[in-house]
Amino acid sequence: MNIKSIIADIRDQRRIDGLFKRFRPAIVFHAAAHKHVPLMEENPEEAVTNNIIGTHHLLAASVEVGVERFVLISSDKAVAPSSVMGASKRVAEMLVRDTARRTSRGYVVVRFGNVLGSRGSVVPHFKRQIERGGPVTLTHPDMKRFFMTIPEAVHLVLEAGGMGRGGELFVLKMGEPVRIADLAEDLIKLSGLTVAEVPIVYTGVRPGEKLEESLWERGATTAATSHPDVLRVVEREGEADATTDELLAAFVGAAEQGDLLSIQATLARHILTFAPVLKVETT
Q1: Residues of the chain falling short of pLDDT 50
Q2: Separation CA 202–CA 130 (nearest Å)
Q3: What CATH number does the domain located at 13-113+149-172+217-270 have?
Q4: 144 is catalytic
Q5: Where are the extended beta strands (E) located within the chain?
Q6: Model-level pTM?
Q7: Engineering a disulfide at 107: which of 7, 70, 122, 176 sits with its beta carbon 3.0 to 4.6 angstroms away?
Q8: How far is CA 261 from the centre of its chain?
């Protein structure tokens, strides 16, 4: 297999256009997103320029050179988003599905939760804290998240990407959400220690975080696909009507202003279920 590694910033439209014309890919898997919720709350213009405008650049280049399939890797945080990161991913979903409708190409969205062992995953973070003797820091005792392994995620993304006709939203089945405190306690025990030896400390929910995530909007319908662990989801509400040009113009302007309130206001105008949350303190 001939593998070519290229470094590029998806916000650089000229660079992206040049690379696509040079290599003319048939399939694009788009995973080049900022994904860390607290960092994007502090740097909201980065979420907008990368996750939204960068996605547009990839889509435009894909259409120009005739990319047959485009698969956006999305997040459960795009559902009724409470963070700038989640909302920016929701807008990226909107752009992909709009492009699919306009071009009748196999451009799809695959949405799922957290991947164990991926960059920024809590498991290696907890392991490092345990190795240092603790404490293990959690934001809230009731925090829950969906998890799957890297091999599971890769396999199901490939399956979903291959079955899409164009414009579909696929969601990966992830089982029941896991309480993060239980995960931390299990890791401490597997290390041969006890919570008395490695204490757990709760630091409070960070800006933009929810206690629990969902994989689709309230009122959505789901349908089985040819793979038992992949669902096709139809969400009936949650997005305001806007053309791609209107969306991009709004977010370019918001990013140029660069302040959190302006960006949140722009996101709220285009995502009807966007509801920023305030920091919640533990008791």
Answers
A1: 279-283
A2: 15
A3: 3.40.50.720
A4: no
A5: 27-30, 69-75, 106-112, 114-116, 136-138, 144-145, 147-149, 169-172, 178-179, 200-202, 221-224, 230-234
A6: 0.90
A7: 70
A8: 21
